[in-house]
Amino acid sequence: MRSLKISEVMWNHIEPIRCGTPLTKVVKALLDNHVTGLPVVDEKRQVLGFVSEQDCIHSLLVSNYHSEGEPIVDDVMFHKPLTVSPEMSVIDLAQNLGAGKPKVYPVVDHGKLVGIVTRTAILSQLAKSGNTIEKQRFANVED
Fold this sequence. Notes:
Elements: E1 17-18, H1 23-33, E2 37-41, E3 47-52, H2 53-66, H3 73-76, H4 90-96, E4 104-109, E5 112-118, H5 119-142
Helix pairs in contact: 4-5
Organism: Marinobacter nauticus (Marinobacter hydrocarbonoclasticus)
Protein name: CBS domain-containing protein
Keywords: CBS domain
């Protein structure tokens, strides 16, 4: 079985979040894109942070309770997110997934964001690969 690269399963059509974005717009982007988190970038698409649903939930609860006004993504984002290379093997990333690990990884090439890869995309690819292996094994038995 050929090892797929992250570039073959990543999503590159999702617009990242820019610094200064109000949290309500961040939530809309998360919901519209059906993802649990998104990278935060500067004008050069360099990853500065990562914002998750959990970050938004907590911050919106606190700001609504205290009537503090609308928070911005800079206030809640995680500032040192784990990133992956588009050349990384899907299998290598899958082996590193586990409890406490991100569900979404920014994919960075030469310092710039080129996409994201989700656990769902990795799971889907592994399931497809497993089916292919089973079909090949079954076809060889019938021959």
